[in-house]
Amino acid sequence: MFGGSIKKKFLGKAYQEFAPGLTADSVVVVKGRVSARDDGMNIHAQSLFTPDLGTASGGGPLVITLQEHRATTEVVKALNDVLIRHGGDEEVRLRLVRGGNARVFELPFSVEVSADLYGELKSLLGPTCL
After folding, report:
1. Residue 63 confidence class, pLDDT cut points 50, 70, 90
2. 91: which strand partners?
C-alpha cells in the first residue's frame, strides 16, 4: 500500500502546459526539482506524464514476470501483501526468468485486476513485470 505525500508545484508555464493532466485520483509521473525548506519538502514540477498502467481486462490469468535474482524473501513477501490486498477471481501466475529460460508457477491467489493493482505491481517489481 502506498503512503506519504509530497507537495508538487506547477508554476507559470509548467502549469499552463500540464493543467489538463492534473485530475483528481489520477496516477501521474512528475519530474522536477526538489526543494527542502522549513515548511517541508516540495517538488517544483518541470514535466508530467501518465504512465502506462496496463489494462484492467479479464482476459485470462494475470502473469507477473520477475527476474529470478530479484525474487528475494523481502520482494516475495511484498508481492504476497499486494496480491492479498487485491483479492478477486482472476488466477495469478509468476513467471521467473533466468537467462533465456523461464519457469511459470501458479500462485495460490486470485485477484481483482485493476489499474491500482497494476500500479502497485509495477512500483514493486518494475515496469516490465506485466
Report:
1. very high
2. 110
Q: Is the pLDDT of residue 129 over 70?
A: yes
CA-only gyration radius of the chain, Å: 18
The full set of domain ranges for the chain reads 7-49, 62-125
| Residue that the C-alpha cell 481483482 belongs to | 112
Output the nine-digit C-alpha cell for 72.
528475494
Question: Cell 522549513 identifies what position?
Answer: 38
- For residues 3 and 83, give the distance between their C-alpha atoms in angstroms, rounded to a whole number: 17
Q: SS in 3 state form for 70-113?
A: HCCHHHHHHHHHHHHHCEEEEEEEEEEEECCEEEEEEEEEEECC
pLDDT digits (tens, 9 = 90+) for 74-83: 999 999 999 9
Mean pLDDT in the chain?
A: 85
- Cell numbers for 62, please give them: 494475470
First and final C-alpha spacing in the chain: 18
